[in-house]
Amino acid sequence: MTEPAPIRGLWCATLTPLGRDGGVDHARLAALVRELLAKGVDGIVPFGTTGEGPSFSVAERCEGLEALLATGIAPDRLLAATGCTALSDTVALTRHALKTGCPRCLILPPFFWKNLTDEAVFRYYSMLIDTVGDTHLRIYLYHIPQLSAVSIRPEVVARLAAAYPGIIAGVKDSGGDFEHTAGLLKRVPQLSILLGHESHLPRLMRAGGAGTICGIANLFPDLIAALLKPDVPPDDETRVRMFLDIVLRYPFVPAFKAIRAAQTGDPAWLAPRPPLLPLAADEQTTLLAALHSAGFGIVPERSQ
């Protein structure tokens, strides 16, 4: 296994298409990944938040990663999302990723028990690393407290990075609080600090950050790529904020899937995994019409 380079640039947390049986549609997922890579996306994160990862079993996530690799997607273009509520499941997914040649793993903290202390978060990741026991592992810590209800504070990241140099490779900061991001940049400048909150990207890049792992890249990769350039046009920053203002009026995964269905003319994209529900017909119409009016090139008609 070759030494993986630190993640930089534009990485996409991919949507997960479903078949009629409710399982992962591996062919559609592979087609989306190839499309995104052809459009200049640097890498892919399957089964992250946008991909509804916690709604899929360990077996389904293993099969999904294997199916992508079987289509010829290079391991170095993949970051496996392996975080689960149970430590044993996280260990199993992480070991599977390593076995398939994907040493980079995006790992949530355990997200059922709330109000975890910094010590509990540190010990969880420490136990994970020690149990996996593979020096090839490269962990990207996943801070998304609005969903996980567990923060990974800069002090904890710094402690982990000191205890496991090389293995702790970066952080995906999706908290939407740039003060937290700035703390990471200050405490662990040697790590790849990546954002999931797209509207903060120009600020991150000016401060020396590494890039993004984000969901909007499923739909408008060129728009997000522009935010990583040193001379970001103000109009691009405005358009991202406008997009988020429209989409976040709805549950974001069903909304993203409705947009993907409209872009492709493929209604199979509409279905999320339970417990999420697809947007109602009137919600789809209103969402697509708002995006059309805002100049996003989305047809205003509801996908059939």
Topology:
Blueprint: E1 9-13, H1 26-38, E2 43-45, H2 58-70, E3 80-81, H3 87-99, E4 104-107, H4 118-132, E5 138-143, H5 145-148, H6 154-163, E6 168-173, H7 178-187, E7 192-195, H8 201-206, E8 211-214, H9 221-227, H10 234-247, H11 252-264, H12 281-293
Parallel strand pairs: 1-2, 1-8, 3-4, 4-5, 5-6, 6-7, 7-8
- Uncertain ranges: none
CATH level-3 fold name? TIM Barrel
In percent, how helical is the residue content?
Answer: 40-55%
- Please name the fourth-level CATH homologous superfamily: Aldolase class I
Task: Report the β-strand fraction as a percent range.
Answer: 5-15%
Order of helices and strands: EHEHEHEHEHHEHEHEHHHH
| Main pleated sheet | 8 strands, parallel
Count of strand segments: 8
Total DSSP helices: 12
Number of domains: 1
Protein described:
This protein has 304 residues and is α/β, with parallel strands linked by helices. It has a single domain, classed as TIM Barrel (Alpha-Beta Barrel). Helices cover 43% and strands 11% of the residues. The protein has an 8-stranded parallel β-sheet. Helix 3 packs across helix 4 and helix 9 crosses helix 10. The longest helix has 15 residues. The termini are far apart.
